[in-house]
Amino acid sequence: MTAKIIDGKQIAADMRAELKQEVAGLKKQGIVPGLGVILVGDDPASQSYVTAKERDCEEIGIYSDDNRLPDSISRKELMALVEKMNDDPKINGILVQLPLPRGFDESEVLFAINPAKDVDGFHPVNVGRMVIGEKAFLPCTPHGVVKLLIRSGVTIEGANVVVVGRSNLVGKPLANMLVQKKPNANATVTICHTRTKDLAAHTKRADIIVAAAGRPNTVTAEMVKEGAVVIDVGVNRLEDATKKKGYRLVGDVDFEAVKEKASLITPVPGGVGPMTRTMLLYNTIESAKIAAGLEIE
User: Fold this and answer.
1) Residue 105 catalytic?
2) Residue 297's pLDDT band (boundaries 50, 70, 90)?
3) Catalytic-residue membership of 97
């Protein structure tokens, strides 16, 4: 068996096309979704990510208020900007790009965001609502994983899912989403991590494996049963002198070997990554609809 590749780029592009139509419809009602972005410092990866988000907003018609700030900005100035966005009716979603430079308390900044504009889904209010199954802004990467599974025709209900990784950004929220008693969930979920004894004993039973450990080759072919669905969230740089940049990107899964056993598998890059940005747009539009008193999913 050779796995079918889940094309995250195409699925994300399809979703953005749908969101573009939705934004056009909202604009006819006088509603323009707005995203406020705060980038502190000159981290190249963060700059690249924010630039891509700016293009996404322009592509689908979302108003974008981008603020690129030097790392010399004071805590007081940064918190004042967050508060300004909280009070700005043109801004439906606020994104503070992480990581922040050394010296800033990331939790303090993120928790200062109005939960109604927390389109990253990091605020404790949204995390708590997610845990108890109430409507909330869901974190973009795990939400993107769920959308990939659904749009690839994977049956989640009743499936045995192993999530390898327990981060607050991916592992924990994803496990929570999949175990909920609601449509496109109802899975039996096992969370594994760096202290799990005999990881393979768990993954071999899984119908769906999500690798989000941040370590290359965490999941190998010997750890995967025939026909399993494998979602690779990891993004790791490996030195490679044959590449122009001097490195190549790989995930947490031994892709070449595992694809010969899995039924579906995501590549790195081009799998989960494009979905993360798309779900940020999705959440921003949902926030605009809520602010306008419209019904949401």
Assistant:
1) no
2) low
3) yes
